[in-house]
Amino acid sequence: MPPQPALLPAPLPSPRPAPTSANDTLYLQIAERIAQPIRAGTLARGERIPSVRELARQQGVSLSTVVQAYRTLEDARLIEARPRSGYFVAARAPRLPEPEPSLPPPDSRPVDVSSLGEQVMSLATDPRYISFGAACPSGELFAQDRVRRAVSRAAQRHRASLCRYPIGPGHELLRRAVARHALGLGCQLDARNILVTNGCQEAISLCLRAVTQPGDVVALESPTSFGFLEILESMHLRALEIPTHPRTGLSLDALQLAFDTQPVKAVLAVPTLSNPLGASMPLAERRRLAQMVAERGIPLIEDVLYNDLAEQDDRRRAVKAFDTSGHVMICGSFSKTVAPGIRLGWVEAGRWGAQVRRLKAVHSGGHTELLELAMADLLTQPGHGSAYRQLRTTIAARVDEARGLIAESFPRGTRVTDPAGGFILWIELPGGLDSTALFEACLAERICIAPGTMFSATGRYRHCIRLGVGGRWDEAHRAALRRIGEIARTMAERSAG
Ligand SMILES: Cc1ncc(COP(=O)(O)O)c(C=O)c1O
Fold it and tell me: What are the Pro residues biased-composition ranges (predicted)?
């Protein structure tokens, strides 16, 4: 077949509101019709797929529907456009199998996360170490000049702000910018109900404090964020870990069973790009989760920190979008997408708004107004949406490369997640390899990884590690990643022979 002219779709505003009607989902159906044979291997890597025009004719849909479908498939790294040649199945890194769904015990546990976690976090900023241990993106991923300009503009325009006490829920301009931002997550929030916080971590802490007492049971994904376990421990809460699938997230059947059998006081979940699995719940499951918590009157603390990094539009839609009863407390921040150093987050706590606001006033008061104004400026700048898209593309290429290096260098039988966005990989080592021993061996070579036990209150995941590949990325980091695999291979060979 002669080469066809490239049909490069016009950029769409991003993040886009999630689809809401059958018409809007047509492009997703078309995308899925192409995605299925790619995932099954029926369409091979590098194989040409129909042009936009051909597919529109075949499927009896408009050109723009196909353009949108192809854009979705590109975002999911399933296809790629080649200039002047057309669209092809993407040449992806060799695939390793994904980890099994988790199966934590059915009862709750007090939390006692070891000092190991603190060590891993402190090494993340130690220049003597190459760190894959923390989920911290590095500066070069962000529009640093744009951030600097926004801060100096705010300093110029709002000179008086530094000498004013910042009392109240946060600067109105930022709260309005957050409400606008939330439209991209499918949520219509009233800016008056939004509270500005010190990152997402504080938002989650405040929500938990508002709805629980020491000794209460909190249901959460398994494995879960180390930061969540630290909060639970500090508040003397019990963790009830729920089976979680590495791609589709929290098992809602298991959560329903937990509601029936355990005194669950709150659910704390990351429905999009959970940490460390990188799982994202399908849209129908999000709707069901909103219904389940409403029926039981149990608060869901929803962490949307990573939603803007999700490759597929429908995975960016928050559970909060389906909340009609105020049972979802949505928490977010811009630490992973705009500027980690500005350290601002937000929460809309539904029916617990007043309690959360009071706790915030007592706990930490207001914020540096200047930074709030700079963030509001950044969120409302015209190029803001396309910066997210750029970030997703950069990270996707990085993760793909890292998965390729893992496939080449880790021992046979290794499993690794294939997250649809974000920069966190969860690795299951074969043959019961001890990740704490691997951690120690890597540390001796000034490489830091996060051992799996950090991510559970149950002592599970000893054979797993988490790698964050959002930090610096250069030859030394590639070599370090290969080296982790070599060390693991040597350990595997020793234990086999
Ligand atoms: C799932 C999750 N929630 C919250 C946080 C903390 O966010 P912030 O830095 O905005 O406080 C992290 C940080 O890694 C995280 O992974």
Answer: 1-18
Inside any domain, residue 104:
no
> How many whole angstroms from 221 Cα to the centroid of ligand 1?
15
Q: Which atom of ligand 1 is nearest to the CA of 201?
A: 11
How far, in Å, CA of 316 to CA of 17, rounded?
A: 8
Is 142 within 8 Å of 338 (Cβ atoms)?
yes
Q: Which of 356, 382, 408 is the last residue of a domain?
A: 382
CATH number at residue 86: 1.10.10.10
For residues 207 and 293, membership in a common domain is answered with yes
Atom of ligand 1 nearest to the CA of 345: 10
Whats the size of the chain, residue-wise? 497
Mean pLDDT, the chain cut into blocks of 10 residues (497 residues total): 34 35 73 79 82 93 92 80 88 77 94 85 90 90 93 93 89 97 96 98 98 98 97 97 97 98 98 98 96 98 97 91 98 95 96 98 92 96 85 89 92 94 96 94 97 95 96 94 96 87
Which residue's C-alpha comes closest to atom 6 of ligand 1?
201
Place of tokens 């950069």: 394
Nearest CA to ligand 1 atom 7: 200
Q: Is residue 118 part of a domain?
A: yes
User: How many angstroms does the Cα of residue 310 sit away from the middle of ligand 1?
Assistant: 15
> What residue numbers bound the domain in which 295 lies?
144-382
Whether 331 and 476 map to the same domain: the answer is: no
Interatomic CA distance for residues 90 and 79, integer angstroms? 4
Run of H or E including 195: strand 195-197
DSSP 386-450: HHHHHHHHHHHHHHHHHHHHHHHHSPTT-EE---SBSSEEEEEPGGG--HHHHHHHHHHTTEE-E
Same domain as 348, residue 297:
yes
